Predict the structure of NodB homology domain-containing protein.
Amino acid sequence: MQKVLFVLVLTASLFFKVNAATILIYHHVSDKTPKSTSVSTEQFKEHLELINSLKLIVVPLTTITDAIKANTPVDNNWVAITFDDGYHSVYDNALPLLIQYKFPFTVFVNPKMVGPSKLYLDWDQLAELAKHQGIIANHTMAHENLVQDGLTDEQMIDNILLADKIITEKLNQSHKLLAYPYGEYDHKIKQDLKKLGYVGFAQHSGAVNETSDILALSRFPANGIYANPKTLKAKLNSLPFNIKSITPSDTKPESLNPLLQVSLLNKDFYQSQLACFISGSGKPQKPEWTSKLDFNIASNNEIPKGRVKYNCTAPSISHSGRFYWMSKLWINL
């Protein structure tokens, strides 16, 4: 009987299909800019070489979002490269390497901040990026915080539409892709984005697939303390949890011990091996399983001020050496 059960479990694991695409987020590509949001030119080249060595395929960001919107499987080898804010170093240091490797990429810009400037790109430079497989997308007009800046619904919608209008006029591109400034959003903002037909990009970590939230897609940071190629390799090989729902949606916590509730569609890992890591805590924290596919996690201690993440990982049963990975970003001001 035990042998039969073992065979059944083994057979089920072999046929467990999981699709995973990865989106990377960068800001500066320079060793002269703030380290927390920067990757050196040499490190960036190492990242591109790592992607090549893993035989991954760098695709336009829209290739991934089109698949998710159509509820069709993403390819396990897909990776998308994104840059937030449109800094000058993307043109100076990243573009020559992206051309060399023939990789497409996306730059999220704020039209009010577009140059001429020592810090930000100008429209001519953005046009040059567009000639070399660059998607130029929306990051709001002037990097407004859509949660904290007190914008009304009407003001926020006008802001997003105006930014898209200017990008279209200047570059003839309109992709309806929005990267939330600071990675901050709430349920109301997501619903407004849905009405506008946009895709939203956040700043929490994890791979994506057709079950991912199209209004808050996760991206792995690859700059600052996250620039190490060894840890980046694990992220590029990560798998997304097949998620039914996550509550709450908002990045602003309702308490200093915020409760995260996750409901899965299915799972390919043992409950006992799911571990969650909370920013500022050195030890992993075990979640509370409320059913076979539902778990809760809340910080045992009050979360500190600033940006706090709950990162949850579990080793895959059917894909040896690969880990499921998801995170929740809290912004406690």
Notes: The longest strand covers residues 306-315. The two ends are 56 Å apart (CA to CA).
